[in-house]
Amino acid sequence: MEEEQELKDHREERELQIVLLLGLTPPPLFKFFPELLQKFKFLSPFEYPTTPIHQFLKFHAQSIKVMICMGGRNEATCELGDAADFAVGLLLDVLRRISASNRYVRSGLWPLKGEYPLGLKVGGQRVGIVGLGSIGSEVAKRLDAFGCSISYNSRRKKVSILFPYYSHVCDLAANCDILILCCALTDETYHIINKDVLSALGKDGVIINVGRGALVDEKALVRFLVRGEIGGAGLDVFENEPTVPKEFLELDNVVLTLHKAVHTLSSLSALYELTMANLEAFFSNKPLLSPVNYEQEAVTL
Amino acid sequence: MESIGVLMTCPMSNYLEEELEKKFKLFKIWKHTDQKDQFLKENSQSIRAIVGNAAVGASSELIDSLPKLEIVSSYSVGLDKIDLNKCKEKGIRVSNTPDVLTDDVADLAIALILSTLRRICESDRYVRNGLWKKGDFKLSTKFTGKSVGIIGLGRIGAAIAERAAAFDCPISYFSRSEKPNTNYKYYSNILDLAANCQILVVACALTEETRHIVNRQVIDALGPKGVVINIGRGPHIDEPELVSALVEGRLGGAGLDVYENEPEVPEELLGLDNVVLLPHVGSGTFETRNAMADLVIGNLEAYFSNKPLLTPVV
């Protein structure tokens, strides 16, 4: 009886299409959308932590038809609003010291040490958006309502946008108080925020990163923050997640989150639906719903 | 004006203190708490002005002990710590600091909404405690497009509405009367407001009528997915009811800048992940506090030069 059941299971397993999943940590998708597991067999290198990834891929190469890389922008989902909301939330936190003063209250210091140090006014801050794509535009729309002045850097100047454009990030940094990183990670944008940009931003400057960790030369950022050569940072992404430079943990002017900019139920639901729809289309030989145009995107993995 | 006596009720701003010392004869009552009555008796004949704030204002008792009092210039926009009736009776002028702090307080309301809904402070805690490596699957709640209900559509309430609108949030409000020229939905009953929004923001003045305006019924109407944000005054909310609703999961979360007995914060809240607790920092930026101080001084100088008050209340 047991043998029969095992054979049956194996047969069912063989019938499921195999999908390779690359992501940070075992995807929250399965926890919230277990139906995915009934339709496809997912392989994740995270389940084999001691196997080097190239070996893992070589072993399974023949059976993998589809690979999903968790994360990444997609305009067909509602991630845009969420990512923009999160960027604004991080900025407000750094300027008004929300996480730091919340810690202060929770550790019982308010009655003992009195008033918490003052923060910085949001209105009137000059905000530079690095990458004025869909997410960057949503950030700009929100910060405009707070009285911030917006300028940007992008691969190309956007004809329809009235905000001031700077063709070099250093110039943007020199003319802003705050930089918000909303661009994709490519060969050109790797370490786009380096020590020159940080120097140009100045000692009261703030960096908000909801893009990718590698947009920032993290070692340089650590040095600047530790030496007080920059005002503060709100970081949702890091170069070697889940490792966060320990120097950040000592600083009150840094807010650290766990790559959560789009981790809301609504965004992940939309992402799940799109992923499922793409998978089903692929395996029924129908056109993909949201294919990537390689010439246009020049994406690096 | 250096001989005019001004009593400051508590430490509130070094800048304000320095300016008051330069221009007036400043009495710092908090330095004499042990012999307060003695101190007042000795100096009451010279004190013509009080500078108070949201923590310590001009109480009935204090006003009675200063027979030469002519003006109360508050380092706050809130007037709940001033006995306004007594001031009116005795012909004492009152000024506050409206407008200069509107943006900061509205910014803080949105900051509290985002931190609470998107679990920003909670994430920051996880990272600092090294918990990220263990994996974390808590999803947060989207803010864009969520319904926001505002109690009080005055300067601060309107500024909050403007910001929330940039996040595509439908806005509704409860107020003593409907405001003309807004596109926001008006509810004449606070229970209807609470039942029809997900994020409830307290932004009205504290008066006898608005004390405990957020009570058990309002919290029940808001429900387990609802979030309360308080940037008004602690007594706007029935604090024990709020605490038990949060602890029992009958309310989704809370972002609080004010409490009934500052700086005391209910201990049960300290253990909850779905609340953000700030130490009354609504107007807490360098720029705004300096602007508030300038307004306090400006009102005093105007009064004692027989000019109209800049921002009169009484």
TrEMBL record, chain A:
One GO MF term attached to the UniProt entry: hydroxypyruvate reductase [NAD(P)H] activity
Source superkingdom: Eukaryota
GO CC terms of this entry: cytosol
Family matches, as InterPro entries: D-isomer_2-hydroxyacid_DH (IPR050223), D-isomer_DH_NAD-bd (IPR006140), NAD(P)-bd_dom_sf (IPR036291)
Keyword NAD: yes
Annotated D-isomer specific 2-hydroxyacid dehydrogenase NAD-binding domain residues: 88-261
TM helices/strands, residue ranges: none
Keyword NAD among record annotations: yes
Keywords assigned by UniProt, alphabetized: NAD, NADP, Oxidoreductase
Record-given protein name: D-isomer specific 2-hydroxyacid dehydrogenase NAD-binding domain-containing protein
Lineage: Eukaryota, Viridiplantae, Streptophyta, Embryophyta, Tracheophyta
Automatic annotation (TrEMBL), chain B:
PROSITE patterns referenced in this protein's UniProt entry, alphabetically: D_2_HYDROXYACID_DH_1
Pfam families to which the protein is assigned, alphabetical: 2-Hacid_dh (PF00389), 2-Hacid_dh_C (PF02826)
InterPro entries listed in its UniProt record: D-isomer_2-hydroxyacid_DH, D-isomer_2_OHA_DH_cat_dom, D-isomer_DH_CS1, D-isomer_DH_NAD-bd, NAD(P)-bd_dom_sf
Domain D-isomer specific 2-hydroxyacid dehydrogenase catalytic intervals: 7-313
A GO cellular component entry from the record: cytosol
Gene3D superfamilies: NAD(P)-binding Rossmann-like Domain
Keyword terms of this UniProt record: NAD, NADP, Oxidoreductase
Family: Belongs to the D-isomer specific 2-hydroxyacid dehydrogenase family.
Protein name: Hydroxyphenylpyruvate reductase
Source organism (scientific name): Coptis chinensis
UniProt lineage: Eukaryota, Viridiplantae, Streptophyta, Embryophyta, Tracheophyta
